[in-house]
Structure to design on (285 residues):
């Protein structure tokens, strides 16, 4: 049965309920921005001016509760294990989104899900609602993360801001990974934190840096040469690998920033990669 129980909270946010599971979205008003970073990695170049149309982006990363409420025999993702970090990346057939190798509760971000798993999840929730959902494009993600900023982070260039804005590498991380580069602060979490535990960015988005990396829709390309300028997903290049953004719970400021790009095989699951959704509201909303 198609359900459209949507509460419009304000001009800038929406709550969509599907089978009694709530998803919160912030309206990201369109504009133009310069994507990339002259001081970043080579794959963040060339910088170019990109136009973004207004869109709705999930306020937080998808939680374990939200993900688990829509698991079926067709889209279940408990069968192929997950990669975890312990003196290098290792693969475990035992680990999965219900057991990523560390303790979580239902309000933590889902991890150990592949890009392919997420497409199945999206197909399923799309079948239950007149609204439609998808992953953000890479350009949409960076535009939303920057929140009209032009600096390394949305609050400026000082990496110490991660301690109040993000769950990233800190003194907690050093307890498990003594060799990691870390901010000299303690955010209270060794691995993932409940979503929304830190300050939001000016667009009302939580955990846009840190906590869990976030899959995007785009195929991987090692530069922005010939990339779309209209904010759409780049669906040419190496589509066996997909882009993810934002840094995870164990990442230092080099990785947990607006323009940093990363990629992985679309079937790969890792203990620090999750996602958030874009909402395309039904026209009657």
């Amino acid at each position: 049965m198609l359900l459209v129980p949507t509460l419009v909270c304000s001009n800038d946010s929406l709550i969509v309920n599907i089978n009694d599971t709530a998803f919160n979205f912030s309206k990201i008003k369109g504009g133009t921005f310069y994507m990339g970073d002259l001081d970043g990695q080579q794959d963040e170049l060339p910088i170019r001016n990109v136009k973004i149309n207004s869109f709705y982006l999930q306020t937080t990363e998808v939680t374990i509760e939200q993900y688990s409420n829509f698991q079926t025999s067709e889209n279940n993702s408990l069968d192929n294990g997950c990669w975890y970090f312990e003196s290098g990346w290792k693969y475990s057939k035992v680990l999965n989104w219900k057991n990523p190798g560390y303790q979580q509760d239902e309000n933590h971000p889902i991890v150990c899900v592949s890009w392919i798993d997420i497409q199945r999840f999206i197909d399923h929730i799309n079948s239950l609602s007149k609204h439609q959902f998808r992953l953000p494009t890479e350009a949409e993600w960076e535009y939303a993360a920057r929140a009209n900023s032009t600096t390394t982070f949305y609050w400026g260039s000082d990496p110490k801001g991660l301690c109040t804005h993000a769950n990233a590498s800190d003194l907690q991380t050093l307890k498990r990974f003594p060799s990691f580069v870390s901010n000299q602060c303690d955010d209270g979490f060794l691995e993932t934190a409940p979503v929304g535990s830190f300050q939001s960015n000016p667009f009302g988005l939580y955990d846009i840096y840190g906590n869990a990396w976030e899959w995007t829709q785009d195929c991987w390309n090692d530069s922005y040469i010939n990339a779309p300028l209209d904010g759409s997903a780049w669906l040419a290049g190496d589509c066996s690998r997909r882009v993810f953004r934002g840094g995870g719970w164990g990442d230092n400021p080099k990785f947990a920033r607006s323009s940093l790009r990363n990629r992985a095989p679309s079937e790969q699951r890792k203990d620090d990669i999750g996602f958030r959704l874009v909402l395309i509201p039904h026209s009657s909303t």
